[in-house]
């Protein structure tokens, strides 16, 4: 019943050519990025894509996700109906009637119900944006009530309404079986007759309305932010299979640009990410910097990359330099196509943004790449970091304390040097464990536990150096490279096979980053080792630790989200106290950062609320007597926050201190 197939063919060709040209213009820009291999482990990638893209796993993590799930799968199912519609527009004799009647009726029944679900989903999305939009739906460039959002929703609604009008008219004309189309049949019985036009005219008008809405949607899609409809599924397939607990190495040669200072310094996958962003705001909601009033908004970073690529693409294709800067110098705020330096330095590299992104965009690595450019190419970084970098280079620790002081934490303990073949575990004390007055107490507690369990352990003593975690996350890859090489050589030379560390940052760096330098050994966090010792009956906890009162446990980002160690600390605390610890409202993978990761430990917070105060306020709402942590940075940030907020008698303990207390007779 398609009037004038020739006219439809012309419009289809016009829409298809606009679609293809639009896709080519955008996807060809992705090729400007640096090469990167993302086609390994195809089976794993495919199963992950099914789970996250088609299964909408992360989308369903929010209440409104169910509505998006309905719209998404409605599109998938109705793609068959729309394909039949397009073919029928060119060849009117081609239709589902060529199929066996039972299959034809089953498909029509499915399309009819799914069209109703899609229409309901779109109407709910309209209402949400109009009457109860979430804060994450709005930013400097995304508005909940944006014309573009309403245009896309309107086109979908028109498609569904035209579908019902077309089939209801055909039922009224007797050309379709009403039993196969219950919704359309209901409309035909109640709404077609009162209309001022005949069913045949309604059928023709609805057909053309459906055609124009569908063809307009195709033509507009590559020009809009809804291009993620095309890129989200492949982006899930191409995502990094590893957790974001390391960074790619750099090659240091004369004449090379280091880090990312212009848009074509990113890899093609970084650029593809920018076209895949759905602008849902989940990253913004969970980001500790954005949530405390900092310049950083992960969504804005990705949007700026896309805008910068579109603005500079033509020039870069011809070999001309970009006209729009990727990074705005000084204290400038992030704008259209550029990210401000303040935003780049606000990141704590906690990885929360990446853990909630429904299409697996990799925000944090892009920020670190831009930091590398600022540090290594422009020497532009916060003033406090000058001292930090100099201390690491000169004395191998953040405070610039003499390396000879590394063993002062021993006190009266008999600490042995690690000996190859005689010592099982190297206790990698870490800078905080060796130099920070408060963290030294944790080191002593850990040493006490290892001795009580009969573990063979030793240290590197005065020759131990900083692992370089903050160097790498702050973008000083050159100094990190040197630090990592020296440390790897030392560990290999000493014959180290097993390492235990109390710091999640040392744990993650030694375990993950150093693999890039050929170091393959067993690295465990002290919570994991203590849990294993308790489970094996090697630790005799002589008493339940009862004087800690209501004990609240805080997850470290680099232990939990980056390395998936969640159970061990809780098992240790349960064994030591006889009860499971109290949980924060935001815990586990959704835990909120203490504010010290990503090198933020060595910088002052100049904008908004201090991140640690936000977390401590959340803790105080649980009315704890003790806050338990498993990280030196978290311990410092929690104690500082309690002082600032006058947290009264609330104590902060590392879990090693809790266990050591239970060892006392």
What does this entry look like structurally?
This protein is mainly α and 665 residues long. The protein folds into three domains: 5-233, Fumarate Reductase Cytochrome B subunit, CATH 1.20.950; 263-376, Fumarate Reductase Iron-sulfur Protein, Chain B, domain 2, CATH 1.10.1060; 386-663, no CATH class. The protein contains 25 helices and ten strands. The strands form three sheets. It has a four-stranded parallel sheet. Strand 5, helix 20 (504-511) and strand 6 form a beta-alpha-beta unit. Helix 1 packs across helix 9, helix 5 (147-173) packs across helix 6 (182-192) and helix 5 packs antiparallel against helix 7. The radius of gyration is 30 Å and the shape is elongated. The mean pLDDT is 93. It holds the Pfam family CCG. The chain crosses the membrane at residues 70-91, 103-127, 147-166, 178-197.
SSE arrangement:
Elements: H1 5-30, H2 42-54, H3 65-90, H4 101-131, H5 147-173, H6 182-192, H7 199-220, H8 228-237, H9 268-276, H10 282-286, H11 298-317, E1 327-328, E2 339-340, H12 341-345, H13 352-356, H14 363-376, H15 384-395, E3 425-428, H16 430-435, H17 437-452, E4 457-458, H18 469-473, H19 477-493, E5 498-501, H20 504-511, E6 522-525, H21 526-535, E7 551-553, H22 567-577, E8 582-583, H23 611-620, E9 626-629, H24 632-644, E10 651-654, H25 655-663
Parallel strand pairs: 1-2, 3-4, 3-5, 5-6, 7-8, 7-9, 9-10
Helix pairs in contact: 1-7, 1-9, 2-8, 3-4, 4-5, 5-6, 5-7, 8-9, 9-11, 17-25, 21-22, 22-25, 23-24
Pfam family, one: CCG
InterPro entries: 4Fe4S_Fe-S-bd, 4Fe4S_Fe_S_CS, Cys_rich_dom, HdrC_iron-sulfur_subunit, Helical_ferredxn, NarG-like_sf
Protein name: (Fe-S)-binding protein
């Amino acid at each position: 019943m398609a009037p004038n197939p020739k006219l439809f063919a012309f419009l289809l060709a016009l829409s298809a050519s606009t679609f293809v040209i639009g896709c080519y213009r955008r996807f060809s820009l992705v090729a400007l990025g640096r090469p990167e291999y993302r086609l390994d482990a195809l089976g794993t990638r495919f199963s992950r894509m099914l789970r996250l893209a088609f299964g909408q796993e992360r989308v369903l993590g929010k209440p409104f996700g169910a509505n998006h799930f309905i719209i998404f799968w409605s599109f998938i199912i109705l793609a068959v109906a729309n394909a039949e519609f397009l073919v029928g527009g060119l060849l009117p004799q081609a239709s589902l009637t060529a199929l066996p009647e039972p299959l034809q009726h089953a498909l029509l029944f499915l399309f009819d119900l799914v069209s109703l679900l899609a229409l309901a989903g779109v109407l709910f999305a309209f209402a949400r944006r109009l009457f109860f939009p979430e804060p994450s739906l709005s930013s400097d460039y995304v508005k909940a009530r944006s014309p573009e959002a309403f245009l896309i929703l309107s086109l979908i609604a028109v498609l569904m309404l035209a579908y019902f009008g077309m089939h209801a008219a055909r039922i009224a004309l007797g050309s379709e079986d009403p039993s196969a189309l219950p919704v359309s049949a209901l409309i035909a019985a109640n709404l077609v007759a009162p209309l001022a036009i005949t069913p045949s005219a309604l059928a023709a008008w609805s057909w053309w309305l459906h055609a124009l809405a569908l063809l307009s949607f195709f033509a507009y899609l590559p020009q809009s932010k809804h291009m993620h409809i095309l890129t989200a599924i492949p982006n899930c397939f191409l995502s990094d299979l590893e957790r974001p607990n390391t960074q790619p190495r750099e090659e240091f040669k004369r004449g090379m640009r280091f880090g990312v200072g212009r848009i074509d310094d990113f890899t093609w996958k970084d650029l593809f990410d920018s076209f895949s962003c759905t602008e849902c705001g989940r990253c913004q909601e969970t980001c500790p910097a954005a949530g405390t009033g900092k310049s950083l908004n992960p969504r804005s970073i990705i949007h700026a990359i896309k805008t910068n690529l579109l603005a500079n693409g033509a020039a870069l294709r011809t070999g001309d330099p970009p006209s729009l800067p990727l990074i705005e110098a000084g204290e400038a705020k992030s704008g259209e196509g550029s990210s401000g330096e303040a935003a780049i330095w606000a990141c704590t590299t906690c990885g929360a943004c990446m853990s909630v992104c429904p299409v697996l965009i990799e925000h944090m690595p892009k920020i670190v790449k831009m930091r590398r450019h600022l540090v290594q190419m422009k020497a532009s970084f916060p003033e406090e970091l000058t001292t930090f970098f100099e201390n690491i280079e000169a004395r191998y620790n953040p405070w610039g304390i003499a390396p000879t002081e590394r063993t002062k934490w021993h006190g009266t303990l008999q600490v042995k040097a690690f000996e190859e073949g005689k010592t099982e575990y190297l206790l990698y004390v870490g800078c905080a464990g060796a130099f920070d007055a408060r963290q030294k107490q944790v080191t002593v507690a850990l040493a006490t536990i290892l001795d009580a369990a009969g573990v063979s352990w030793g240290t590197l003593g005065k020759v131990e150096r900083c692992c370089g975690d903050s160097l790498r996350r702050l973008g000083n890859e050159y100094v990190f490279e040197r630090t990592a090489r020296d440390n790897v050589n030392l560990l290999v030379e000493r014959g180290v096979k097993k390492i235990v560390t109390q710091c999640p940052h040392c744990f993650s760096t030694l375990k993950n980053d150093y693999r890039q330098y050929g170091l393959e050994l067993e690295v465990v966090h002290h919570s994991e080792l203590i849990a294993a010792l308790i489970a094996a009956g090697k630790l005799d906890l002589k008493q339940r630790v009862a004087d800690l009162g209501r004990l609240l446990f805080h997850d470290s980002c680099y232990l939990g989200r980056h390395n998936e160690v969640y159970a061990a600390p809780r098992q240790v605390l349960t064994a030591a106290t006889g009860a499971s610890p109290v949980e924060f409202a935001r815990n586990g993978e959704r835990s909120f950062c203490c504010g010290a990761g990503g090198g933020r430990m060595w910088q002052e917070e100049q904008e908004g609320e201090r991140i640690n105060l936000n977390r401590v306020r959340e803790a105080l709402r649980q009315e704890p007597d003790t806050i338990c942590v498993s990280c030196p940075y978290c311990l410092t940030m929690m104690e500082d926050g309690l002082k600032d907020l006058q947290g009264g008698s609330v104590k902060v303990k590392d879990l090693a201190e809790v266990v050591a207390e239970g060892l006392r007779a």
